[in-house]
């Protein structure tokens, strides 16, 4: 593995701020390109009792962004909806490494769990 220097730790946050974030497992059922964006992919995530659309900047991170279809991953499911490239995103995919210039990897559970299972 290549030499890596971790980024400095961000400032402390109150535990209540962490508890307000709803992080759960979902299966990525579909990933499609957004023609108006060079980096965004439109993901359909299954969270057990519902599905939602989540936009993720993974188009250039992988040679085939659709390779994540069928995979479980961690998502933040309660951020306010956000408009990007004319589309609305209803959450955030946890993709490890991109912010640090490391080849991205999905944040995934160690074994399959029911969609909608919460972290924490």
Could you explain how this protein is built, in words?
It is globular, with a radius of gyration of 15 Å. It has a 5-stranded antiparallel beta sheet with strand order 3-2-1-4-7, with no helix packed on it. It has a two-stranded antiparallel sheet with strand order 5-6. The longest helix has 6 residues, at 15-20. It is built from 1 helix and 9 strands. β1 and β2 form a beta hairpin. The chain has one domain: Nucleic acid-binding proteins (OB fold (Dihydrolipoamide Acetyltransferase, E2P), Beta Barrel). The chain has one helix spanning 15-20; strands at 23-33, 41-46, 51-56, 72-76, 82-84, 87-89, 92-93, 95-96, 105-106. With 120 residues, it is mainly β. The model has no long low-confidence stretch (mean pLDDT 93).
